[in-house]
Amino acid sequence: MRLERVGRRHGLRGPWVLREVSLDLPAAGLVRITGANGTGKSTLLRLLAGIDAPTEGRVTGRPARTAYVPERFPAALPFTAADYLVHLGRVQGLGRAAARTRAGDWLERFGAAGHARTPLAELSKGTSQKVAVAQALLADPALLVLDEAWTGLDTGARAELDTAVRERLTAGAAVVFVDHDPRRLAGEADALYGVEAGRVRPVRETPAAPARPLVRITASGSRPLPARLPGDPVTEPAPGHDGRAARSLAGDRVAEPVPGRDCRAARRLPGEPGTGLAPGDDGRVAHTAAPGALVLTVDAAHSDALLGVLLAEAWHIDHLESEGVRV
Ligand SMILES: Nc1ncnc2c1ncn2[C@@H]1O[C@H](COP(=O)(O)OP(=O)(O)OP(=O)(O)O)[C@@H](O)[C@H]1O
């Protein structure tokens, strides 16, 4: 696939977001796009995926089977999760039976099979994101474009998406992705490009950062939390009284139930159907049911900022752990 002197701006007189971008992307392999906020990464991905057309220059050689996960999923469509996936599978050329089977398989893989019949508008942010990712994987895309696709997924679904990316690569596809976490598929990219000042240039991968300690914060509160929290913590319900444990960011490490706390009200994340919780207009997650405890696992570098947001929203910090040590 080739971009020749591609430029893109919004509106007739808007500032150029990208200009004179010439790139040859291989038909197979993993490509990472990096850049500071607002530099034009999403704009580049939309051009690659064919969602937007260049204002100038041209894009050639895009595979017919191209799939895209947008940074923001348009969740307010009048479909159930399964019907939406079947519909998109059909659009992508699958027969109805194959589309239904694959929709079920992908929902299952991402741990969302229980929401197959839930209307999209009633899905939590995390489950919506699972549907957004599933729609892109339905028809074995030859080019898969992922814009912060891991954001909002729980630990298991993030790992499943890593696996799905590797499966596409093994099948000979190209995967182009943006993710704010430098550890995402670190060391696996075949090519890296940086977006800066409207230009796109090859960059060298910064060596994978040494594993940093994780901090696990158990907190409870009734005020809505911002949709975007510092450090993009993995947010999970605090373990229930039945001993079911939440998985932590570290993968296999398992969080123990919080001592002395009855977490019956905390089985679901805010926003999950059935809790009486709903996303607010400002993107916050309204938390109108009985307060429940959440476990937020975050890189230690962001824990102070995260604690600051929780305290500012009048959340109570029940428990704080660093690498399994109570602090
Ligand atoms: N539809 C639009 N209309 C007008 N300006 C837009 C539109 N979409 C993006 N922009 C502007 O284009 C610039 C690049 O946006 P883009 O979303 O591509 O950046 P980004 O690097 O992906 O940012 P982030 O890391 O914050 O997601 C920004 O200044 C943004 O405000």
Secondary structure topology:
Layout: E1 2-9, E2 16-24, E3 29-34, H1 41-49, E4 56-60, E5 66-69, H2 81-91, H3 96-109, H4 125-137, E6 143-147, H5 155-170, E7 174-178, E8 191-196, E9 199-202, E10 214-221, E11 234-237, E12 292-299, H6 300-312, E13 316-322, E14 325-326
Parallel strand pairs: 3-7, 3-8, 5-6, 6-7
Antiparallel strand pairs: 1-2, 1-4, 8-9, 10-12, 10-13, 11-12, 13-14
How would you characterize the overall build of this protein?
The protein is of the alpha/beta class. 23% of the residues lie in helices and 25% in strands. The chain has helices spanning 41-49, 81-91, 96-109, 125-137, 155-170, 300-312; strands at residues 2-9, 16-24, 29-34, 56-60, 66-69, 143-147, 174-178, 191-196, 199-202, 214-221, 234-237, 292-299, 316-322, 325-326. A hairpin with a 2-residue loop joins strand 13 and strand 14. Helix 2 (81-91) packs across helix 3. It is globular, with a radius of gyration of 21 Å. Mean pLDDT is 82; it is low at 241-290. The site of adenosine-5'-triphosphate has 12 residues, from helix 1.
